[in-house]
Write a structure and sequence with these properties.
By secondary structure, this protein is α/β, with parallel strands linked by helices. It is 37% helix and 9% strand.
């Protein structure tokens, strides 16, 4: 059972809705870039606070995760040959994102088979961290619209 008393979806089941905070980064250092290049690229985007750049233990833990993330982004997840996604899509874009513009996020609409909303958030590529409260309010709004259990909808409005 999940938090709303319903059984979790069966393995392989279609999701009820899709939320994409942003598309893969098209103009960031490659996964095989040197540590220095990758760190400079991430710091330039605001992905690493400058105070942490002088902490090798933190960086040694961060770089493998960042490289894995970049490897995932190099795939062709949004191929034009895919079938439309048959769930409502909610896309979030950073207003000042230098990697993925709002217009680029909007291109995901062509993959939406059951509607698509694009919500522009304050901030850049890392708006998820910089404006967490705003994003959480937006996500709560989306979830309230799709809540299947009235008690869950009431809990989300709190």
């Amino acid at each position: 059972m999940n938090g709303n008393g319903a059984a979790p979806p069966a393995r392989g089941a279609r999701p009820e809705l899709l939320s994409r905070p942003h598309l893969p980064a098209p103009n960031i250092a490659a996964p095989d870039a040197s540590d220095e290049e990758l760190l400079a690229s991430l710091a330039d985007l605001g992905g690493i606070p400058s105070v942490l750049l002088n902490h090798p233990d933190f960086l040694s833990a961060l770089l493998p995760v960042a490289r894995d993330d970049l490897l995932l982004c190099t795939g062709n997840a949004a191929s034009v040959d895919t079938e439309p996604i048959q769930v409502p899509m909610y896309l979030f874009a950073g207003k000042r994102d230098r990697l993925v513009s709002v217009a680029e996020v909007v291109t995901w609409r062509r993959h939406a088979g059951r509607g698509c909303e694009v919500r522009t958030m304050p901030g850049g590529h890392f708006f998820i961290r910089a404006h967490e409260d705003t994003l959480l309010r937006e996500l709560a709004s989306v979830l309230r619209r799709h809540a299947a259990v009235p008690a869950l909808a009431g809990a989300l409005s709190a």
